[in-house]
Amino acid sequence: MHDVLIVGAGPAGLSAALALRQAGAGVTVLEQHPSPPPRVCGAFINPEGASHLEALGLMDRLSDVGAVPVTEARVTWPNGGDAVVPLVRGNRAGLAVPRPTLERVMADAVAAAGGTVRWGARVRDAARSGNDWSVELVSGVTRRTLSAPWLVVADGRFSSLSGRHVLRSRAGWFGWNVSYVGVGQPPGALSLHFCRDGYVGLLTFGDGVTNVCGLARFGLSGPIRWEEVLASALREQKGLAHLMRSATRVDAFRGVGPLPFSRAMWEGSGPLLAGDAAAVGDPYMGEGISRALGTGPALSAALAGGGPGAPSDAFVSRYNRLWRDRYHPRLWLGTAARWMFSRPRLAVPLLGHVVNRPFLLRVILSIAHGRRR
Ligand SMILES: Cc1cc2nc3c(=O)[nH]c(=O)nc-3n(C[C@H](O)[C@H](O)[C@H](O)COP(=O)(O)OP(=O)(O)OC[C@H]3O[C@@H](n4cnc5c(N)ncnc54)[C@H](O)[C@@H]3O)c2cc1C
């Protein structure tokens, strides 16, 4: 029996599944991919995200599979300046773990708790029918309809089920990533290299593989060649070129965009929205995964000790309010940062100014990565 259907086995959907299962609900997660896929993502989990993983009971398991703490970020900018930004909040550091590993650990935990994750099940449509949600899914050549009183939509940044309309254009901000070995930084190191038209971040995992991930702005001109985007960043950024001088690429470039950024939750009278389906923040805020992982703890807080039952209007507005209070200021900060980084002449001196002023940096980090717990 399904109490809750969850669309998407990213960190938002799996976090929701774990928390609701722990509250006693029958949960089924529907995911279109056959297994946790590689993603276009920097894969840095900020300290707040690590505290959500702790609340979900996953930290030991993640350490067992090689997740390593990230305590600081080295930031460099094109004029040769650099600074170290501390990332530890209270006694908690950030975390470096490849996305497929994170999602495999979470999906296994959902299954171990008695929930179901259906891989290779693409949801085509969802609609209210009486008190239930009815979901139409395609799995191979089979079509099925499932229904349940709860529907959590966690289908990511281009959500087709949240009810919002994502404008597809060819111009805007694009994300990309690729894996290298032999990058000159140790496991758990995070470095962020700002260029004229975006940035490149390097995060080294426990096994020595480095995720090289960038954000770049493009107009309406022809196809984007990610190799050339990285090559141009290497020419522009001495700090980045130095770290990558002996590195070897070990997988293919992946790219996505234009990214449909938002400053607020996309709210409607529809299902519960989670993660990027609720709002797409700026990647260099380093909190998208954390926001997604926060879904389960936010649902638990909105349940306020009661069992899952059928979600009432009061429950939905409690969840939405919690979400807005926690994330809206940061979504705005991300928009302001993106505006600034599209103006390198302003951004470069301002960034230097901020990272050299510990008090200002602490204030900005406390908005960006949540209050200390
Ligand atoms: C370039 C870039 C770098 C980033 N770097 C970082 C970073 O370093 N740290 C950080 O915290 N955040 C980062 N982010 C943001 C982060 O990747 C997202 O915020 C996070 O993945 C959101 O998780 P989610 O679970 O909401 O969505 P997703 O991870 O996108 O998961 C959604 C899932 O839903 C599935 N799905 C979609 N439609 C359907 C359907 N119809 N039926 C079934 N399944 C469906 C998808 O296959 C997917 O598995 C970055 C983003 C970009 C673009």
What distinguishing features does this structure have?
FAD/NAD(P)-binding domain, alpha/beta, globular, 8-stranded mixed sheet, 373 residues, 11 helices, binds flavin-adenine dinucleotide
CATH-level-2 architecture: 3-Layer(bba) Sandwich
Low-pLDDT stretches are none
Bound molecules: flavin-adenine dinucleotide
> N-to-C SSE series?
EHEEHHEEEEHEEEEEEEEEHHEEEHHHHH
Number of structural units classed as domains: 1
Describe this protein's structure.
This protein has a single domain, classed as 3-Layer(bba) Sandwich (FAD/NAD(P)-binding domain), CATH 3.50.50. It is of the alpha/beta class and 373 residues long. It is built from eleven helices and 19 strands. α1 packs parallel to α4 and α8 runs antiparallel to α9. It is globular. The two termini are 37 Å apart. The mean pLDDT is 89. A hairpin with a 2-residue loop joins β9 and β10. The strands form four sheets. Strands 5, 6, 13, 14, 15, 16, 17 and 18 form an eight-stranded mixed β-sheet that branches. Residues 7-13, 30-33, 39-44, 122-123, 154-157, 160, 175, 213, 215, 256, 259, 275-277, 283, 286-290, 292 line the site of flavin-adenine dinucleotide (FAD).
